[in-house]
Amino acid sequence: MFTIEHEFDATVVTLIDDAAQYRQEDIVINAFEDCVTLEQVGHDGESVQKITLSLAQIADLREALNLPEGVYKRRPGQE
Fold first, then answer.
1. pLDDT of residue 32
2. Which residues in the chain come in under a pLDDT of 70?
3. β-strand partners of 28
4. How are strands ordered across the β-sheet holding 27-31?
5. pLDDT at residue number 50
6. Is 58 strand, coil or helix?
7. Which of helix, strand or coil describes residue 29?
8. Which whole-number Å values give the CA distances from 74 to 34, 53, 59, 79, in the listed order?
9. Do 67 and 52 meet the contact criterion of CB atoms below 8 Å apart?
10. Which helix (H) or strand (E) holds 4?
């Protein structure tokens, strides 16, 4: 299950791991104008782990999901 919310400066997607046998903490994805962040509560239940991806990294990820195993380099200007 997931939720989508549109806030002032970001679109927020929350991924809820409700089908897992050993449920993981929800993942919150914030899509800003210049980057995307992923946040998840740590195993201690208090700290928040955060990863920030540039839009170029998001473009690489999007492309990687449709390619076979290998090493690839994005061409200049390709996003």
1. 96
2. 20, 77-79
3. 14, 39
4. 2-6, 11-15, 27-31, 35-41, 48-54
5. 97
6. helix
7. strand
8. 18, 16, 9, 8
9. no
10. strand 2-6
Q: How confident is the model at residue 78, as a pLDDT?
A: 61
Q: How many residues does the chain have?
A: 79
In contact, 75 and 56? CB cutoff 8 Å: no
- 72 Cβ neighbours under 8 A, 6+ residues apart: 60, 63, 64
Two tokens, residue 13: 């997607």
Inter-residue contact 11 to 4 (CB < 8 Å): yes
- Rounded CA-CA distance 78/55 in Å is 11
Residue type, 56: A
pLDDT value, residue 2: 83
Return the amino acid letter for 68.
Answer: P
Locate tokens 């061409």: which residue? 75
